[in-house]
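Handout, section B. The chain below has 215 residues.
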Amino acid sequence: MKQVYLSLLLAGLTAAPALGQKTTVNAFPKPLAPVANAGMKAPQFHLPSAIDDKKKGITMYAGQRLDQSKHRSWVKWQTGDSFNFTGNFFDRTFGPALELGRDGIGVNLATVTGNVFRRGGAYEEKPFENPEKSSHMILDGCTGCVITGNTMKVGAGDGGVLPVSPDYGVIMRNCENSILKENAMHNGSLKNNLIEENNTGCIIADNVGCLYSGD
């Protein structure tokens, strides 16, 4: 009986191609190749850029580098609400790397944490009319802000051609209920690492460092 069933099976396989209009030789499927699409571009990988949602009043800078090679100046906000500056590298900015508020009118709710401020407060042709522009950071009239865990250091322009900057580290005045604490300012500035005036309900403590002496 087994021989009969085997004979019938072989006969069926032999006759099967004749039932169709066209016979083909089957093979294992090949791996699918990517389909070219003129309307699609290859993904571009880059550092995260700023997120600015004015409807929600939220601005966030994370993982960016601002420096003289990109011809960028400082990040400057006179007023606003809910800012987050985390893990950025501010290098050789022309003017303060970060300036929040002006003339006693500042921003509300901002965090500045884990950033590197290097060679900030530089000038391009001549010194600033306002000497405080040669600084890493200016906070004026800010409320509910936290600045902690940042590092700051002076430096000259690329190749050591332009002067060392900045003259000042952090300038904080007219702020309320804010924290400036535990920032490292080793060789942080040329003249004064911290200027603080007329602040109310603020914690300003444990900011360590020294002035640059040229060594």
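Note. Residues 2-58 have pLDDT under 50 and may be disordered. Compare this with the example in section A.
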